Q: What sequence folds into this?
């Protein structure tokens, strides 16, 4: 017979309950007995399986991050046409964000006011699986001339994560200022179209340019330093500004005069 508290517990129910409490009350004000009661387990069971409250929080954050990730099967598009395939994948990723507002809130809170030691939250899950799928479709689209070559999969992920999280994070302000709910289910399809059209339009445009093969991964090109003419006047005097503005060719004629 197992000792008391060693029974299996429903992880999903525990983490869902903890997610709601941590989002609503914050880490400091959430108690272990509250999580246990909400999940239908005992505090002893909770302590045995997760350790302390930080242990529960760590697994809850991991759970929240995983809810934004889709499996490779879920990400696989039905079309081989690059633009259509990219639109499919973007739509599915957006739906994952839209359907997981508490995950976004907890991740944002951890980014702004960390509970875990520096760098630990980033190691809880692997990179978003959509990044690899974006990269695959990008390569196909470039080969066919459908997509520009200076945008990377991480650039797409940057835009999607920003726009995918905004309905949740911007909803209170938008509701107060514009009397609209960004999280309203009735707006989901239109908002999804806005996000996917934005990214597809960006990928197929011929304007702008990152100066390399990625907006998020290329160092700025070095620029040649140029001294301000006013400063040159102060340093060299009025007669010497030509040394800054243009190359001066010395006149050696008097050396060779007979």
A:
């Amino acid at each position: 017979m197992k000792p008391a508290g060693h029974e299996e517990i429903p992880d999903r129910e525990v983490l869902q309950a903890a997610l709601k409490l941590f989002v609503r009350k914050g880490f400091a004000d959430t108690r272990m007995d509250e999580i246990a009661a909400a999940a239908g387990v005992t505090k002893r069971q909770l302590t045995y399986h997760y350790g302390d409250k930080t242990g529960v929080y760590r697994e809850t954050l991991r759970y929240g991050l995983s809810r934004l990730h889709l499996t490779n099967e879920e990400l696989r598009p039905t079309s081989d046409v690059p633009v259509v395939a990219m639109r499919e994948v973007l739509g599915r990723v957006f739906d994952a964000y839209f359907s997981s507002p508490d995950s976004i809130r907890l991740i944002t809170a951890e980014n702004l006011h960390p509970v875990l030691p520096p760098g630990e939250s980033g190691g809880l899950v692997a990179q978003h699986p959509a990044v690899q799928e974006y990269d695959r479709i990008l390569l196909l689209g470039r080969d066919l001339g459908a997509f520009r070559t200076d945008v990377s999969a991480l650039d797409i992920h940057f835009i999607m994560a920003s726009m995918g999280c905004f309905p949740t994070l911007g909803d209170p302000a938008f509701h107060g200022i514009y009397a609209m709910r960004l999280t309203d289910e009735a707006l989901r399809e239109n908002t999804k179209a806005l996000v996917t059209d934005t990214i597809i339009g960006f990928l197929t445009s011929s304007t702008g340019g990152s100066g390399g093969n990625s907006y998020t991964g290329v160092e700025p090109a070095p620029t040649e330093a140029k001294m301000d003419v006013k400063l040159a006047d102060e340093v060299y005097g009025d007669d010497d500004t030509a040394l800054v503005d243009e190359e001066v060719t010395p006149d050696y004629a008097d050396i060779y005069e007979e």
Notes: The chain has two domains: 9-68, 71-207. The radius of gyration is 28 Å. Confidence is low (pLDDT under 50) at residues 1-5, 218-258. DSSP finds 13 helices and no strands in the chain.
